[in-house]
Design brief:
Shape: globular
Order of helices and strands: HHHHH
Number of domains: 1
Mean pLDDT: 76
């Protein structure tokens, strides 16, 4: 989490797909499996996505983030281990 402020300021170059995956992971770290915050995602953008990319993402992109979060919340199957996600981010 120490790189999160730098990431949100846009210091790390990421593809659109990486930004969406990271937004889903950041949401999951902050709110775990609580879906009650889904309607608040537009207000939470500055906490999920680099400032320079907020305007570039379409509503369809946010639907993909929501779908990814929902797949993480399924019992057994789609829930990734945080350690594998973190190792992917570090490389």
């Amino acid at each position: 989490m120490q790189e999160l402020p730098k990431y949100l300021r846009g210091y790390h170059k990421c593809t659109r797909e990486e930004v969406l995956q990271l937004a889903a992971l950041i949401y999951r770290v902050k709110f775990e499996d609580d879906k009650s915050y889904f309607p608040s995602i537009p207000k939470l953008l500055k906490e999920l996505v680099p400032q320079d990319l907020v305007r570039q993402l379409s509503p369809d992109d946010w639907k993909r983030v929501k779908q990814q979060l929902e797949s993480y919340a399924r019992p057994g199957g789609g829930k990734p281990s945080l350690s594998s996600d973190m190792s992917a981010i570090q490389h």
